[in-house]
Amino acid sequence: MSLGSTSLGSKHFAEGCITRRLTIRRPGGYLLPLLLFAAVAPQALLPQTMMSASTSGGGTRLLSSDAAILEIEDVKKDLPCTVTQIKPVLGFDLRFHSGYDITLPLRELSGEGGNLTIVLKVTSDTAKDSPVYFSQRYNVPEIDDEAKGDAYLQGSFDLGEGDYHVMWMMRDKMERVCSSAWDISATLPAKDQSMKLPIAAHAIEPSDLEFFKDEPPVTRIEGPDTLRVKVLINFAPQKVTAASMAPVDTSALVSILRNISREPRIYKFSLVAFNMTDQKVVYRKEDMEQINFPELGKALAGIKLGMVDYKKLADKKSETDFLANLIQEELGHNSTDAVIFAGPKVMLDHPIPPESVAGIADIAFPVFYMNYILTPQQTPWRDSIGTVVKKLKGQEYTISRPRDLWNAWSDIMGRIVKTKLVATAATSLK
Asked: What is the maximum alpha-carbon separation in the chain?
């Protein structure tokens, strides 16, 4: 979002697109005092739905007039809006996200209110006779005839690898139409071809920002070589001063957890979610057969970023003490086959005392650190968790792109399995 803008309406739906946001900006960058689209009122934004191409029958179906525009690809500007395509980008969830940005002058929405309806047709080059349709409607409140500035809307959808054609249209209460068409391509670079995406090639699906929904069951491998893993994850934004978690940060951290949870060779998970700013463990569960993401999401919802207890603020070593105690407790009493730290860099003013690590220096299990940072060149030095992991002869991985997550996890699993085999062999020789 650009400087001088404010988001006035945003809601996420399991069947909807990844973002549907309206922003209003006055010329010159001043905020428009008018709260358009019912000022975040839930009824202002109706969920995006997948549609049937048929124009008759029950369910959510295309209007004949909309179907005609989409079919003949009639580019219209009766409603003077500007739509800009968003090229497919691979997210940390290993799904390609694409979409569009819309700019619409407020004067075009003036009057007693009404609605805007968006209809989207996405077609894979390999299935031109089977396009996928989406619809989305925005309720518009009364807007003054003298209103100035622009309204901004966004929408998106997910894709598998492949080439696609998009036909987009928006209709207002007076049946004026703005429409556009474009081609997009979702392609993995040659060096990333080994990555297995959870969305099939040429697939077209609604995006989802329900980060903490249930993970589908995984068929676990049974036997003596199955693994138990403990994960300590710092759920915190990359910017320490941020008042909330940015969606990209939440998506990356949850994707790291989901990647771990999908490993069939792990049959037990222990999870400790903490927040360094709040200096608190917000969620702890031992020996789970599957990570409970909805439960984790509820626990994390209680984190109040930007608010620090005065006593902790007055104690300049409180963060250091918290992390040192956490490491001693979780690693000193660990019975799993590996411990994995994950999260953004933790830069403390005071280093963790050597004696805090000395008591656990002879651990028999491997330790790893998946350090999530989008711009590692801005903070190239090792952080406090990385320093501890190095002292424990563990491995640290920088996670800046989806391929980093894929490669890191492949290496981590290889090391855990090797360590377990060596330990099993040594035990059998006794």
From this structure: 87
* Residue 72, burial from CB neighbour count under 10 angstroms (0-12, 13-18, 19+): exposed
Checking if the pLDDT of 279 tops 60, the result is yes
Q: What is the pLDDT of residues 337-376, one digit of tens each?
A: 999 999 999 998 888 888 878 778 778 899 999 999 999 9
Examine the domain organization and report whether 167 and 266 are in the same domain: no
Q: Which of 172, 206, 240 is the last residue of a domain?
A: 206
CATH number at residue 74: 2.60.40.10
Tokens of 288: 């789970």
Residue 229 pLDDT > 90: yes
Task: Please report, for residues 329, 361, 364, the alpha-carbon distance to residue 333 in angstroms, rounded to integers and kept in the order given.
Answer: 6, 13, 12
Domain count, the chain: 2
pLDDT recorded at residue 315:
59
Q: Alpha-carbon distance 167 to 149, whole Å?
A: 27
What type of residue is 265? R
* 372 and 245 Cβ atoms separated by less than 8 Å: no
Whether the Cβ atoms of residue 25 and residue 5 lie closer than 8 Å to each other? yes
Residue 170 backbone dihedrals phi, psi, to 5 degrees: -135, 135
- Looking up tokens 């407020």 gives 106
CATH label of the domain that carries residue 365: 3.40.50
Provide the β-strand partners of residue 184: 164
CB 366 within 8 A of CB 415: yes
Range of the domain at 353: 227-429
Residues 235 and 255: their CA atoms lie apart, in Å, by 12
pTM of the model: 0.79
